[in-house]
Write a structure and sequence with these properties.
single chain; alpha/beta; six-stranded mixed beta sheet; five-stranded mixed beta sheet; Nucleotidyltransferase, domain 5
């Protein structure tokens, strides 16, 4: 078995991967940073460990030590040096792109590759509602861009994306930065007449507006091919209804097929799974 670990801003997720299975199957579990020693009690002994880290070197070092204590294995940390034969990175400085965003996009490829509209040139957005919200866009590679026969060819291009505060961080910043606005739950309504609802509705509207902005830009970049939206992250339930309603209305306004945003459980772990058989680029 291979152990996959995604170290996020607030917690870690891990999953076991059987590389001999006919299909990749991931069931993720969460792990608090205070409980890294719990790795010793996991039911399998991994033969390899692949990891992603955005929480900084201290957490990575603690996890590395826990893995060495439990199994005598170090972690193979994955980032933008990996998977370049699958995805073209248009970031100005690819090394500055977060490992979680890159791996999430590699994971997204697993989900869009079988889709007919992807093969027809429709882009895909991956929206992660975490501590930060990230909205990243993939475009299928055009057929005329194929390299010489036998050469590696990425299946898509990552053309860029947004980073903004996530729903929870927006609420916390309002509570910290103002004297009168509370940190509490409200309901999303069209015309709020109560402060809690005004905050909840404003946060959801800001998140939905950012998604719709990138959706329309991707639509234009793909020559009118409607993008598919994929979502993940713990903040999604907070903004789901507002984002879905905004996307539905935009599709109706342009007389496009109704395609709601689709939930992905663990795109970063999916991306790590894709890299089990892909070594890093030797020129990286």
């Amino acid at each position: 078995m291979i152990l996959l670990i995604d170290i996020g801003n607030t917690r870690a997720k891990y999953a076991w991967l059987d590389p001999d299975a006919s299909q990749l199957h991931i069931t993720a579990e969460t792990l608090d940073y205070a409980d890294l020693s719990d790795l010793i009690g996991l039911p399998h002994k991994p033969r390899r460990i692949l990891g992603s880290n955005v929480a900084g070197p201290d957490i990575a070092a603690r996890l590395e030590q826990a893995c060495r204590t439990a199994w005598g294995l170090g972690v193979h940390w994955c980032d933008t040096r990996h998977g370049r034969d699958l995805l073209r990175n248009r970031y100005t400085d690819p090394a500055r792109l977060g490992a979680d965003r890159w791996l999430g996009l590699l994971g997204l490829l697993r989900h869009v590759h079988p889709l007919a509209d992807w093969r027809d040139g429709h882009p895909a957005l991956l929206v992660s509602f975490g501590t930060a919200t990230t909205i990243d866009t993939l475009l299928p590679e055009p057929r005329h861009d194929m390299p010489p026969a036998g050469g590696p060819h990425p299946q898509a291009s990552f053309i860029g994306g947004l980073i903004l505060p996530g729903p929870s961080l927006m609420a916390q910043s309002l509570a910290r930065g103002t004297a009168q606005l509370p940190l509490t739950a409200g309901h999303c309504v069209d015309f709020p007449r109560e402060t809690h609802d005004a905050i909840a509705s404003g946060i959801a509207a800001a998140q939905a507006g950012a998604v719709l902005r990138q959706w329309r830009l991707a639509l234009r970049a793909a020559g009118g091919h409607a993008p598919r939206v994929f979502v993940c992250g713990g903040g999604w339930p907070v903004v789901r209804d507002t984002v879905q309603a905004a996307l539905t209305q935009a599709q109706a306004d342009l007389r496009l097929p109704q395609t709601p945003a689709q939930w992905l459980d663990n795109p970063v772990l999916d991306g790590l799974a894709c890299l089990v058989s892909h070594p890093p680029d030797p020129d990286a």
